[in-house]
Design goal:
two-stranded antiparallel ribbon; about 55% helix; mainly alpha
């Protein structure tokens, strides 16, 4: 896919049956990225390790995983799908499992703000520490600096841990009001739970029946997960 996006004419001809779809996905992804930047999605520069092994299972090397535009397209569309599903079932007022990421603790934010100032990084966290875009502005400022890795870890430690909840509390890091794990690549138990609810709703099970059946199950599923 990346080679096609890079303009490989042979591959564009070979996969011309999906080429137009791919170009549409690229256009949509670019628009979504611009929207996410405006609303303040936090994007930390934390490389993901990629482990290379030989046939005996021995590690040959550990490298940084490449994250190119083809990955970005998948990520953008996956996040959008998760948001749409979460909002749909929030509006239906049905029991559901949401993936939530709450605002950072005020005391942690104050400590981070002072630490950043001590290291020469001006910030507005003391007044705007409850806005995701404030953290993204800091990340943009420190990108390329010698202390970037250390400061990024400190910002990450200031954040709350994401969790599953029966209440839709939003996702701070993604700057999303509605979010769930509907399309996670690894099928988790919370995903299976909402897939069951979605399927039964689609198949015409009355809302009141779904509420009676799933309210306590969803709460327990979130607690266990």
């Amino acid at each position: 896919v990346q080679n096609i996006l890079n303009g490989d004419e042979f591959l564009k001809e070979k996969y011309q049956d999906v080429l137009q779809d791919l170009m549409s996905y690229q256009e949509i992804s670019n628009k979504l990225q611009k929207q996410k930047k405006v609303r303040g999605e936090i994007r930390m520069n934390i490389p993901e390790p990629f482990i290379l092994e030989n046939q005996a299972g021995e590690i040959i090397s550990i490298e940084n995983r490449v994250q190119d535009e083809s990955h970005e397209i998948i990520e953008s569309l996956m996040v959008l799908t998760n948001e749409v599903v979460a909002k749909t079932f929030f509006d239906l007022a049905l029991p559901f499992v949401y993936r939530v990421h709450e605002k950072p603790d005020e005391e942690k934010v104050k400590r981070l703000s002072q630490l950043l100032k001590n290291m020469g990084v001006a910030n507005q966290l003391e007044t705007d520490g409850d806005k995701p875009i404030s953290y993204q502005k800091i990340i943009d400022k420190i990108t390329g600096l010698p202390q970037e890795k250390t400061l990024t870890k400190l910002i990450l430690r200031t954040m709350m841990k994401a969790r599953y909840a029966p209440a839709c509390l939003g996702h701070f890091g993604l700057a999303s009001e509605f979010y769930c794990h509907f399309t996670s690549p690894i099928r988790r138990y919370p995903d299976l739970m909402i897939h069951r609810i979605i399927k039964q709703f689609i198949n015409g099970v009355p809302r009141e029946d779904l509420k009676l059946k799933y309210k306590s199950i969803v709460e327990r599923a979130c607690e266990i997960s």
